[in-house]
Specification:
With 167 residues, the chain is an alpha/beta fold. It has a single domain, classed as P-loop containing nucleotide triphosphate hydrolases (Rossmann fold, 3-Layer(aba) Sandwich), CATH 3.40.50. Helices cover 29% and strands 31% of the residues. The chain has helices spanning 12-28, 47-58, 97-102, 105-110, 153-159, and strands at 3-10, 36-40, 72-79, 82-90, 114-118, 132-140, 143-150. Strands 1-7-6-2-5-4-3 form a 7-stranded mixed beta sheet. A hairpin with a 2-residue loop joins strand 6 (132-140) and strand 7. Helix 1 crosses helix 2 (47-58). It is globular and about 40 Å long. 37% of the residues are buried. The mean pLDDT is 91. The structure holds adenosine-5'-triphosphate (ATP) and magnesium ion.
């Protein structure tokens, strides 16, 4: 990776606070929101929880559902006066390639905007290398350790928003 960050042993409240700081950075520089972020970790690791806190902090006001059945939930954000499309995908139940085309995943994979993908492994080669990969591990019942890895200059620019210690 081009850059790495580690968020160690965070409670959910700690996580929400760091994501709020990240969201403030994105409000100030919306171009950095144009990234494909893959989320890695076991069932219950906190992938959806991360997305919920991030989208809430970015100003999504309605319900933020887990896209386990729909595969993708789209949102639209206004960041610094710009409209930014947001796609939250969970590919756990992806079975056939035609399914991801029907669900609008081709747009997600090729398009712009903030794109957050749980279980990216399920898409195999259809999903290109992310700008940022986030690996979540349960330290115990209520703490998680996150590793953020940037694989593109755009991903590195996102990690530069902080808000923490470099890995
Ligand atoms: P799946 O693979 O099933 O989609 P997931 O990785 O999306 O799982 P979540 O649905 O986010 O996992 O569930 C994580 C659960 O762990 C939530 O109930 C959340 O409240 C809880 N939790 C406890 N502590 C933390 C923490 N420090 N950070 C994130 N989530 C936490
Ligand atoms: Mg989930």
């Amino acid at each position: 990776p081009l850059a790495a960050r580690r968020w160690a042993q965070l409670t959910e409240d700690d996580l929400a606070a760091r994501l709020s700081a990240l969201a403030r950075g994105l409000q100030a520089d919306p171009a950095r929101a144009d990234v494909l972020i893959t989320l890695h970790g076991e069932l219950g690791a906190g992938k959806t929880t991360l997305v919920r806190h991030l989208l809430r902090a970015l100003g999504v006001s309605g319900r933020i559902k887990s896209p386990t059945f729909a595969l993708v939930e789209p949102y639209e954000l206004t960041l610094g006066g710009q409209t930014v499309p947001v796609w939250h995908a969970d590919l756990y139940r992806l079975t056939r390639p035609s399914e991801w085309i029907e669900a609008g995943l081709a747009e997600l994979f090729a398009g712009r905007g903030l794109r957050l993908v749980e279980w990216p492994e399920r898409a195999g080669a259809a999903l290109s290398r992310p700008d940022v990969a986030v690996h979540l591990d349960a330290a115990d019942d209520d703490r998680r350790t996150l590793q953020w890895l940037a694989y593109s200059p755009q991903g590195r620019a996102l990690l530069e928003l902080g808000p923490d210690e470099p890995a």
